[in-house]
Amino acid sequence: xxxxxxxxxxxxxxxxxxxxxxxxxxxxxxxxxxxxxxxxxxxxxxxxxxxxxxxxxxxxxxxxxxxxxxxxxxxxxxxxxxxxxxxxxxxxxxxxxxxxxxxxxxxxxxxxxxxxxxxxxxxxxxxxxxxxxxxxxxxxxxxxxxxxxxxxxxxxxxxxxxxxxxxxxxxxxxxxxxxxxxxxxxxxxxxxxxxxxxxxxxxxxxxxxxxxxxxxxxxxxxxxxxxxxxxxxxxxxxxxxxxxxxxxxxxxxxxxxxxxxxxxxxxxxxxxxxxxxxxxxxxxxxxxxxxxxx
Length: 294
Ligand SMILES: [Fe+2]
Known about the structure:
Layout: E1 5-11, E2 16-22, E3 28-32, E4 35-39, E5 44-46, H1 48-60, E6 63-68, E7 77-78, H2 80-87, E8 91-94, H3 97-108, E9 123-125, E10 130-133, E11 136-142, E12 151-155, E13 158-162, H4 182-192, E14 200-203, E15 217-219, H5 220-226, H6 236-247, H7 256-263
Parallel strand pairs: 3-6, 6-8, 8-9, 13-14
Antiparallel strand pairs: 1-2, 2-3, 4-5, 4-7, 10-11, 11-12, 12-13, 14-15
Helix pairs in contact: 4-6
The structure holds fe (ii) ion (FE2).
Residues 71, 73-74, 146, 163, 204 line the site of fe (ii) ion (FE2).
């Protein structure tokens, strides 16, 4: 079985990693977690990152057959619909996205015209489901904790583990968003770390701590040896203490309240109003303030 060729793209404003992987035999490929730019001060969206991906796949001669998201993101908008419009490839996410849709439909007080059946994507993957990219089988792992819907894509010697593990010097991703659960995150990471030692794990974010270069990849062996939260495989209770204490200090992501209402629509802006413009809604007083004190 061939291993995928992987190209990573970093979105500096959000620290997000986006990926294109392809089968070198057939040149068929998939995009993982593409970012649509959003400037919250201007309310402006842009396709700069997505166009970089389009340039790359055009020059490399890759035929994209899937546009994949690992979960509904809280820090950026998904560019999946934009890329589907350009490429015609189907979009997919994990089947439990319907729970995330129901949760946020309530928070945003959306009407029944907003469907919570996942129909905004072409396919919803179940745990253990397999599909092909060229000759390469891709296996889906349900890996919740960061969100209720998160999934990991495993292909050949690579796995796209989204917001479970971070790079080893940063540990793991947070589990404190609505629907997040640090116990589930622990169990998801343990399952990922049962992959073969040489499996290349590609993370969803990196914030380039302490001025090092942004980085996206470490093997299972490297995480077991040096991940800040998982080296030596801590007990679940130990991990929960560390993770929950850390999460209690973190402000909510700047774009969470904007991003979720776009991403529960599969990366689409809300329906335009009668003047042709889309508007985002902010629930006022629903969340407790997490502003850092001066
Ligand atoms: Fe995330």
